[in-house]
Amino acid sequence: MRYYPVNLDIKKKNCLVVGGGPVGTRKVITLLDCGAKVTLVSPFATEKLIKMAENHKITWHKRSYKPSDLDGTFLVIGATDDEALNIQISQDAEKQNKLCNIADRPEVCNFILPAIVQKDDLIIAISTSGQSPAFAKKLRKELEKQFGDEYAVFLKMMGGIRKKLLSEKHEPEAHKPIFEKLIHSNLLEYIRSKNLKAINTELYSLLGNGYRFEDLFSIHENPL
Question: What is the mean pLDDT of the chain?
């Protein structure tokens, strides 16, 4: 296996995108969604990127790339249509031990980006190790049909249960059989059908008092 699978925390990290076209736009949006501080370097940009810069969501240097743009960055993505420039970005990043991805050129990257299915906290990454991005896209579409919004709600609920159990000073090892029962219960199906009464009945049978579904979420969340 060539690639080491990892979920990377880039919240508040300085990330650089070189290239302001459609590919660069997609990369910037994904980085922002993950909480990164994004700098764009490109002589031009799409309308979306221009609006992001005007709204101070990103920093845009309206010029060509310079090796010094890598200074202080955690991660860089090359997304230009200039092959020589993309290779230079990769080489410059290698010299500084930066995480570097060059769009559609896995051979000059030290990490590649998988296709993603996301339902809030549920993230399913699909990778073909760069062999066939088209097939990864096909699998993503299939999985998006299989995993609906009920999985996101279920995970939020499980997080609420875990937090409550930990607050009651249970030993973490004691949680494993509890979560196994929850996972193999009918809760997902009840969430899918929005059957609140059945959800709470199931929670009571598995956990006892104090675990009503609606109490496991913050006041700002509307789980069903």
Answer: 92
